[in-house]
Amino acid sequence: MMNDELYKYPEGNVFYRKLERSYPLCVKGKGIYLYDQNGKD
pLDDT digits over 22-32, tens only? Predict the structure, then answer.
């Protein structure tokens, strides 16, 4: 029997993401908003 603790999402202040996916480059931040090269937030 496997331990279910190994498959739970870790608690804490870490933002996890899928590393296989391509993300836009963040070039500017204003408060809680992030902007890419095209100005999209």
Answer: 778 889 999 99
